């Protein structure tokens, strides 16, 4: 099967090659300390609350299967969702890519005359670059999630799906708030910093008339949208403004209300390590006199859907458990991935959304240790998917030649034996030889094993 | 405004992407609607305390509420007291607290579900803007697990699921209670 | 029992002592060891680097080499994992359904060393003596692809004289990851540094594991640091008397 011609996603999905960006991040000792502390904390919490549920494996299997059913019948479910929402009085919009999605939202906002919108943290709007597009139209987008606010005030980029400012510690956040809010009486205490955010955003919540949200789940059966959050900023944005625009990736669909019984168990325990997140909002269509718009976004999702070996990445419910558990992410942080979607899930999702040519290094940003698959609440086999995507990635010419030569030798025992015997000549090199790249990467930090005087099979033949 | 052809194009892409006709069967082998038990109330209270919510178990709800000058959802029982008038958002920002009932509560997770289409739970802003939320949970509204709650609720209703006071883990992934939602969540469990 | 040893390319060329130790151990337990001469490599490096097409003839060679074996033992969790979870798929993807079936059959008879000892032979005390302080690193593929669980530790605990100490953060990847160590050398080195400091805090003189590849990586780092900790494959400790 060929996937050429299926349009790919655009927006904030690419960056510098991973190895280079990672090297830069690795030099930042503060970043590594912040990440190690934060991910260590969350891993322990997640493990404890997952262990509490005796039926976790069954929930995980059901979560994967429900999402697979959604993907297998996505056209049917999208139409059902649209019909239910339209019947309730919402306007449903369809966007093929980031440009169409941002244009639709910008038009809807400017039509209200608003110069400012408040936002609930949303991966989809980050992916399509909505804030930049709104700014270009003269509309200020105010991020209301605490971590997003830290990122916005710090003129920074998000580095984590759930906690976009995970790379910042409390002292750095105090400085960012002092600068961005003009607050002078702050301390490093997270309570004080949270209180500062409350005071800073309160007036916005009570006065801004347009809000933009994403959605964690879109229920086809009822036309319902679900936003899962902690702080109450989501509730503020969903409730108080007169116009609500929700940007939803087409894979966020779940078939029925009942399916929430699975996902509201899987998601909070996997993401924040809580039995339940503080607030979950459910609404169907315009509520309490609001005007409601829903923008359904493709942006490379259908191209991802077209690959039977890659489409399971669309099961993702954006919990971040794979990021928090990944030994690579823990050391490089999220910026190194260059995409709105960092970490192991980003390494399989971003190249599929954009096409592998625009993200050729991400599938290699993993040691294939497999911990991401173990913790994934919808059982996405990320390691196998990474290997599959590596198969499609463009290859450096010298590497490809070396691999072909090695394969030629390894597919015949006589050739292999000759190669091994030649390898013993390597004894002359010593343990720290000057090797050409990429082999020099090995000897920068490690000694080479000394080649033995006799290979195993030569020894065996002498027995 | 959808570009002409965008909807049809996306649906056509989906159908083309699914040419291999994948199928999926959903097995629901997890714990479905459970059996109510004696432990549910205690577990519910324990989970709430874990979130640092105030928990009071009583057979005299009006006494537990007392007279605090709070407002209340219009459909609450009269004996709970509270100002029942409609308030603007600006007015809600100045009241000390709000009293509501709930639709269902979940023992396993310490969750209270508000059904905003029910008059004793009120419109969403009512339980969002004031800083103190008193919610009265009848003991018979407590169900064991999430599937029980989902089964008890109608998906088309406007809902807020509340598990403890407003909180954040955005600073070093350390949980701090009290951001934008009510900083005090007070749960009165009615065992009458 | 007649046991066909798949020694692996890395052990064959760089760590023959691991192969010798595996032979010694299996023979001491009363089994006949054969080394099918056509064997070379499992092809995992090619598969995991995105060269599955080039790996297909390596897989074919492996399947032919072990087609007649009753039982295949591999002193590597990673290679056993590739044989069990990748070979048939590679064959299928390259339009060779017959090879896929044959690969599935070979995989069903293939065991990683600790699996073979504990599950097939039913032994945990292999009669070894090793009077040193040892810490054990569970390699990712033995842990998460094969699920060997406690088997290597049960074998180690039964070794006489051993002072087995727990490795902090044992289940965290050492950063090897095959060509990952070259393609993302800086990240790999950062992971290695944390693994090495965990190893040195144990005070162990020997670090052991079930994969020579990870041991080559960690051992290369430990040697560069002149840490005084040496690396030995699980087979080498179990063969010691």
Automatic annotation (TrEMBL), chain A:
Domain (4Fe-4S ferredoxin-type) ranges: 313-380
Keywords annotated in UniProt: 4Fe-4S, Electron transport, Iron, Iron-sulfur, Metal-binding, Repeat, Transport
Domain LUD span(s) in chain numbering: 80-289
Pfam families: Fer4_8, LUD_dom, LutB_C
Superkingdom of source: Bacteria
GO MF: 4 iron, 4 sulfur cluster binding; metal ion binding
GO terms of biological process kind: lactate metabolic process
Domain Lactate utilization protein B C-terminal: 393-463
InterPro entries (UniProt xref): 4Fe4S_Fe-S-bd, 4Fe4S_Fe_S_CS, FTHF_cligase-like_sf, Helical_ferredxn, LUD_dom, LutB/LldF, LutB_C, NagB/RpiA_transferase-like
PANTHER family (UniProt xref): LACTATE UTILIZATION PROTEIN B
Protein name (record): Iron-sulfur cluster-binding protein
Organism: Actinokineospora fastidiosa
TrEMBL record, chain B:
Name assigned to this protein: LUD domain-containing protein
Gene3D superfamilies: NagB/RpiA/CoA transferase-like
Any Pfam family matching the protein: LUD_dom
Domain LUD, residue spans: 84-189
PANTHER family, A to Z: LACTATE UTILIZATION PROTEIN C
């Amino acid at each position: 099967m060929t996937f050429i011609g299926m349009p790919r996603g655009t927006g904030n999905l690419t960056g510098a090659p991973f190895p280079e960006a990672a090297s830069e991040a690795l030099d930042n000792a503060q970043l590594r300390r912040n990440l190690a502390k934060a991910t260590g904390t969350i891993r322990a919490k997640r493990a404890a609350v997952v262990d509490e549920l005796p039926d976790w494996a069954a929930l995980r299997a059901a979560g994967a299967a429900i999402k697979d059913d959604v993907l297998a019948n996505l056209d049917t479910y999208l139409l059902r969702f649209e019909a239910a929402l339209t019947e309730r009085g919402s306007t449903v919009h369809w966007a093929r890519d980031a440009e169409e999605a941002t244009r639709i939202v910008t038009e809807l906002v400017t039509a209200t005359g608003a110069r400012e919108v408040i936002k609930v943290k949303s991966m989809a709007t980050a992916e399509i670059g909505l804030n930049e597009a709104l700014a270009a139209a003269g509309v200020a987008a105010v991020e209301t999630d605490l971590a997003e606010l830290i990122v916005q005030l710090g003129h920074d980029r998000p580095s984590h799906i759930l906690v976009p400012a995970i790379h910042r510690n409390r002292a750095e956040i105090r400085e960012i708030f002092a600068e961005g809010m003009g607050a002078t009486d702050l301390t490093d205490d997270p309570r004080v910093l949270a209180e500062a955010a409350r005071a800073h955003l309160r007036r916005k919540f009570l006065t801004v008339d347009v809000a933009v949200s994403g959605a964690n789940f879109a229920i086809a059966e009822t036309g319902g949208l679900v936003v899962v959050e902690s702080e109450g900023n989501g509730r503020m944005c969903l409730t108080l403004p007169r116009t609500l625009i929700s940007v939803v990736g087409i894979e966020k669909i779940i078939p029925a209300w009942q399916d929430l019984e699975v996902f509201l168990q899987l998601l909070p325990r996997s993401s924040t390590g809580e039995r339940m997140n503080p607030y979950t909002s459910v609404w169907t269509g315009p509520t309490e006199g609001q005007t409601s718009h829903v923008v359904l976004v493709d942006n490379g999702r259908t191209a991802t859907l077209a690959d039977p070996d890659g489409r399971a990445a669309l099961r993702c419910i954006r919990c971040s458990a794979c990021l928090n558990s990944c030994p690579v992410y823990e050391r490089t942080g999220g910026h190194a991935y260059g995409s709105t979607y960092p970490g192991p899930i980003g390494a399989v999702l971003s190249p599929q959304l954009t096409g592998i040519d625009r993200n050729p290094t991400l599938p290699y940003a993993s040691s294939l240790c497999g911990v991401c698959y173990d913790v994934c609440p919808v059982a996405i086999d990320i390691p196998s998917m990474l290997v599959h995507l590596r198969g499609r990635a463009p290859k450096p010419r010298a590497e490809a030649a070396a691999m072909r030569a090695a394969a030629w030798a390894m597919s015949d025992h006589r050739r292999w034996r000759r190669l091994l015997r030649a390898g013993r000549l390597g004894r002359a090199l010593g343990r720290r030889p000057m090797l050409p790249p990429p082999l020099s990467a090995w000897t920068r930090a490690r000694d080479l094993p000394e080649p033995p005087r006799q290979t195993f099979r030569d020894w065996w033949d002498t027995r | 405004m959808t570009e002409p052809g965008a909807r049809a194009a996306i649906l056509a892409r989906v159908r083309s992407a699914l040419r291999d006709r994948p199928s999926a069967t959903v097995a629901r082998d997890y714990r479905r609607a459970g059996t109510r038990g004696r432990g549910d109330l205690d577990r519910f209270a324990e989970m709430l305390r874990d979130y640092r919510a105030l928990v009071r178990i009583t057979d005299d709800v009006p006494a537990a509420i007392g007279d605090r000058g709070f407002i209340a959802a219009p459909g609450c029982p009269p004996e709970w007291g509270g100002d029942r008038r409609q308030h603007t958002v600006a007015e809600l920002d100045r009241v000390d607290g709000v009293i509501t009932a709930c639709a269902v509560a979940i023992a396993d997770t310490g969750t209270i579900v508000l059904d905003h289409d029910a008059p004793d739970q009120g419109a969403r802003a009512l339980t969002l803007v004031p800083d103190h939320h008193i919610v009265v949970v009848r003991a018979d509204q407590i169900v064991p697990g999430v599937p029980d709650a989902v089964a008890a609720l109608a998906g088309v209703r406007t809902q807020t699921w509340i598990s403890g006071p407003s909180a954040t883990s955005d600073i070093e992934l350390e949980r701090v209670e009290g951001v934008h939602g009510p900083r005090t969540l007070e749960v009165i469990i009615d065992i009458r | 029992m007649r046991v066909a040893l798949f020694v692996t390319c890395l052990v064959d060329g760089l760590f023959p002592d691991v192969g010798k130790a595996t032979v010694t151990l299996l023979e001491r337990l009363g089994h006949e060891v054969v080394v099918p001469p056509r064997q070379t490599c499992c092809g995992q490096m090619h598969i995991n680097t995105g060269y599955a097409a080039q790996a297909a003839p390596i897989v074919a060679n492996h399947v032919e080499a072990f087609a007649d074996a009753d039982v295949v033992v591999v002193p590597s969790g990673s290679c056993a994992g590739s044989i069990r979870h990748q070979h048939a798929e590679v064959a299928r993807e390259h339009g060779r359904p017959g090879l896929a079936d044959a690969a599935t059959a070979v995989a069903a008879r293939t065991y990683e060393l600790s699996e073979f000892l504990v599950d097939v032979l039913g032994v945990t005390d292999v009669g070894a003596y090793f009077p040193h302080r040892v810490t054990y690193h569970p390699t990712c593929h033995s842990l998460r692809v094969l699920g060997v669980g406690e088997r290597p530790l049960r074998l180690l605990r039964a070794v006489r004289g051993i002072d087995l100490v727990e490795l902090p953060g044992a289940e965290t990847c050492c950063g090897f990851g095959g060509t990952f160590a070259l393609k993302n050398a800086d990240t790999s080195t950062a992971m290695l540094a944390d693994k090495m400091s965990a190893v040195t805090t144990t005070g162990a003189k020997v670090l052991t594991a079930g994969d020579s590849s990870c041991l080559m990586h960690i051992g290369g780092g430990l040697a560069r640091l002149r840490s005084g900790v040496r690396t030995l494959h699980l087979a080498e400790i179990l063969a010691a008397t």
